C-alpha cells in the first residue's frame, strides 16, 4: 500500500474529527464562552456553511494547480483554522476560525479522491479511495470520542490543539509521500461547469442535503439530549459517541454493498429507516439501554446512505467527477447547517429536546420524497443500469 494513501487517510481523519467533535463538546463550549446551547450549535452551522460555500470555490480556484500543491495548500488552511480555534478568546472569534477551517474541507476530499485513485492500478482504484475515506470513518469511531474525552478533561481548547498537531503531521506526510507528477491532465473550466447542467443533478444534491439535515438535526444536539433527557454522564456521552461511531462504520460498509445491488431501493429504505428510528428515539431517549440501542441502529441507517448518495450524484456529473464530488460534500454540509439550525430552532422555540428527533424524522421523509423525484428524471436506460 503506498505510504501516500496512509497520509491521505490521516488527513481525512483530522478533518473528520474537527468537523464532528464540536458536537460532543457543545456543553463545555457554551459554558466557557457564556452562550446558550442553541447558539453554540451555530458553530456546527458555521462550519457546514463554510464547507458548502468554500467547496466549489476552492475546487475551481485550485483546478489548474498541481494536485500535490493544492492538497498542501488546503491542509495549511486547515491547520491555521484549528490553531485559531484553540486560541479563540470569544464566541465570534471561534465562529470565524471554524469557517476558515471549513474552507479546505470539500476540495481536499474531492482532490484527494482523485489522487488516491491515481496511486494504484486501475483495478484497485475503488479500494484506494475507500482507504482514504477510512480516515473519515475512524474520525467518528475514535477521533470524536477521544476528542470529546480530552476536551472534557482538559478543556475544549485542548482538543483543537491536538487536531492542529495531527494536521501538522499530515502536512509533513503529504509533502514527503505524495509524488510530484507532471503528466496530470489540465482541467477544462468550461467542461467542468457544463457538467452542472440538468435538473437531475440538482435533485440528487438536494437529496444529499436533506439526508444530512435529518442526520445533523439529531446529531448536533446529541450531547445535551443524552445529558438532560437520558441522564448520561459526560463520560457516558463519550462512550455513546464511540457506539455511534461503530454504527456509522457498519452502516458505511453495508450501504456500499446494498447500493451495488440496487441504488434506488437502498436510498428509499435508508430514509424510511431514519424516519422511523428518529421518531422512536423521541421516546426511547428517556431510558439508557433503549436510547443506546436506538442510537446504534440510527447510526447504521444514516451512514448506509453515504456511498449510495455519492453514486447518485456522480451519475449526473461523469464529465467532471472531482467538481461534482466536491459539490456533493458541499451539499452534505449545507444539510448539516440546516439540521443544526432546525434543531436549535426546535429547542429555542420551547418544544423540548425530545422534539428534536421528530424534526429529524420529518426531514428524512423529505429526503425520501426527493429520492423519488430524482429517479423519476432518469432515462429508462440509465435507470436500468443503476438498478441491475
Automatic annotation (TrEMBL):
Origin superkingdom: Bacteria
Membrane topology qualifier: Multi-pass membrane protein
Residues spanning the membrane: 40-62, 69-89, 95-120, 127-147, 159-178, 199-224, 236-255, 267-289, 295-319, 331-352, 358-375
Alphabetically ordered keywords of this record: Cell membrane, Membrane, Transmembrane, Transmembrane helix
CDD domains per record: MFS_NepI_like
Annotated localization: Cell membrane
UniProt key word Cell membrane: yes
Annotated Major facilitator superfamily (MFS) profile domain residues: 4-382
Protein name: MFS transporter
